[in-house]
Design a protein that fits this description.
It is a single chain. The protein has a five-stranded antiparallel β-sheet with strand order 1-2-3-5-4, with helices on one face. The longest helix is centred in the N-terminal third of the chain and has 21 residues. The chain contains five helices and five strands; from the N terminus they run βααββααββα. The protein is an alpha+beta fold. The protein is globular and about 35 Å long. Helix 1 packs antiparallel against helix 2.
Length: about 140
C-alpha cells in the first residue's frame, strides 16, 4: 500500500467487519504484531463510542503516509469533545474506559469539531525502513 492511500467505511453495529478492515489496512501499511492489534482495538473502541454515546452513526476514515497510519472516527452527532479525552474513567460504574484505552494504545489522539460533527483522530507510527546494511547482510 502506498503513502497517501485512503479508505473509509461506515460505522455500524458489525464491529467485527470494521476491525477486520482496519487490521487489513494497518497490515498493508506496514504495522505488525502488537502494534497492528492495538490499531484494530483502538478503532473498535472509538467506533463503539460513536454507537453508544454519539449519534449512533458515523464513518471511519483510514489513511497512510510515509510514517504511519491515521484513523479518523467521525461522529455525525458531534458529541465527543477534547475534554472527554482528559476524563479519568469511572471504572466502578463502567464509564470512560474505551477512550482511556484508545489514548493508551495510540501514539497520538485528538478531537476536532467540524461542522457539527466530532472527528476523533488516532495515529500509529510505523517502524521506519530497515537499514540498508542489515538488509545486505541478510541477503549474503
Amino acid at each position: 500500500m502506498f503513502p497517501g492511500f485512503r479508505s473509509q467505511w461506515p460505522i455500524t453495529t458489525d464491529l467485527a467487519v470494521l476491525r477486520a478492515r482496519v487490521h487489513a489496512f494497518g497490515a498493508g501499511a506496514g504495522l505488525r504484531g502488537q502494534r497492528l492489534q492495538d490499531l484494530a482495538i483502538a478503532a473498535h473502541e472509538a467506533a463503539t463510542n460513536v454507537l453508544r454515546h454519539g449519534g449512533g452513526r458515523g464513518t471511519l476514515i483510514a489513511s497512510r503516509d510515509a510514517s504511519g497510519v491515521s484513523l479518523e472516527v467521525v461522529d455525525a452527532a458531534g458529541a465527543l469533545t477534547e475534554a472527554h479525552l482528559a476524563t479519568v474513567p469511572d471504572l466502578e460504574h463502567g464509564g470512560g474506559a474505551g477512550l482511556l484505552l484508545v489514548r493508551t494504545l495510540c501514539d497520538e489522539v485528538s478531537v476536532e469539531r467540524v461542522r457539527g460533527a466530532a472527528r476523533l483522530r488516532l495515529r500509529m507510527r510505523t517502524a521506519g525502513p530497515r537499514p540498508v546494511a542489515s538488509m545486505a547482510r541478510e541477503a549474503a
